[in-house]
Amino acid sequence: MSLVQPRTLPGALELLPREQIAFQRLLDTIRATYERFGFLPIETPVMELTEVLLTKEGGETERQVYFAQSTGDREAGREPELALRFDLTVPLARYVAQYEHQLAFPFRRYQIQRVYRGERAQRGRFREFYQCDIDIVGKDELPVRFDAELPAVIYSLFTELGFGGFRIQINNRKLLRGVLAALGIAEGEPQTLVLREVDKLDKRGPEYLRDTLRERFSLGDDIIGRLLAFVGTRSTSYAHARGLLADLERDLAHPLLAQGAAELREVLDRLVDFGVPDSHVCLNFAIARGLDYYTGTVYETILTDHPEIGSVCSGGRYDDLASHYTKSRLPGVGLSIGATRLFWQLRELGLYKDAESTVQVLVALMDESLLGPALQLATRLRAAGIAVEAQLEAAKLAKQLKYADRAGIRFVALLGSDELAKGVVSVKDMQRGTQFEVAADELAATLEVEIAQARAMAGVPRA
């Protein structure tokens, strides 16, 4: 019988145990931060009905969807009724519409789950990946001050993660459309197409944008120059940001521009109240994002020490989350972290190392005659709340120590006949390369102190 080569589908990230522990700690930190800001967890099924998931026919989204079909339906020639979710926003829209009368508004939810997209297989692009979303959904209205809370969450999170410098870039779609209207670019599709190119400025540069605006949209050099000057602007402080908005309103008059500027000022004022320093915030007038989706404030977060990664967290304001599923008006604001891509990128840069094992202590088995005492020792340590693996087969000590080192287990408890006679246990610290002896009845308390110190040194939060 020929063997099937073991392999994963292209675009899936599969980790070894110590890598998985490191990734899980990233998710745990994100989850803890979301909860600290009062967001509640939900989960939705990995599959949704196609009529719910695909509310718009055709388009790029549908080309990236994985459809799910039973063998019976396929053989009968029936169209797939189910599809794997491609993001967490559409399931949220369905969820809020379905449970609208059972939820308390504003509804604050977080969701950390896998999503699936038919991406072209390439390095750093995934077909199965974790998204970590937070959204605040209002009933009928949601004041713009809520738009400031999400950057506050991200500031707290990325400060705790400690990846180095980062900056939360903010803009407003109303401001963008107001500027385009004031420059004579017609509303509707012309603005949408121009904004789609503006959104590529940081990736492709001003010369690409200049050539595209001239050749594709036939804009005059004066309009192109003014537009490039606008979208190339970045603020350096809260005071500078307010000054830029004032100058913009003075130079270009349009009601939508004025509304967008007022909303941005409100967000900036509340960020001060949330304690977010302006060293980590800037206005970036080139950010448009989700051109058919976002309607007001938009965000992107970059790691300033590693700008080549691109945006690591993005989102914004939408006027009506669930218009395809309910007549109720449900405005909201949200953002998302692509955790799988972020972890992969940081690991490639050497910023994420393999974690120690979740097993805190290995109880070695020095001799078959000591199996009973060794298992009893492991049981006492587990009763004290310590994660313990007990060796069930006797082997040379060097082999057991090598196993602990390879598995990332920091402490090894050694209970030989000499230790048993003296009522003590020897403990080997694999990281420091040291060994100490402790009374058997004091072992759990001693290890708790050692484990706490090891966690503190490694920057790992307590569970």
From TrEMBL:
Annotated positions binding L-histidine: D87, L88, T89, R117, Q131, D135, R289, Y293, Y294
EC number: 6.1.1.21
An annotated Gene Ontology molecular function: ATP binding
Keyword flag Zinc: no
Main EC class the enzyme belongs to: ligase
Localisation per UniProt entry: Cytoplasm
GO terms under biological process: histidyl-tRNA aminoacylation
Family membership noted in the UniProt record: Belongs to the class-II aminoacyl-tRNA synthetase family.
Quaternary organization: Homodimer.
Protein known as: Histidine--tRNA ligase
Organism of provenance: Pseudofulvimonas gallinarii
Gene for this chain: hisS
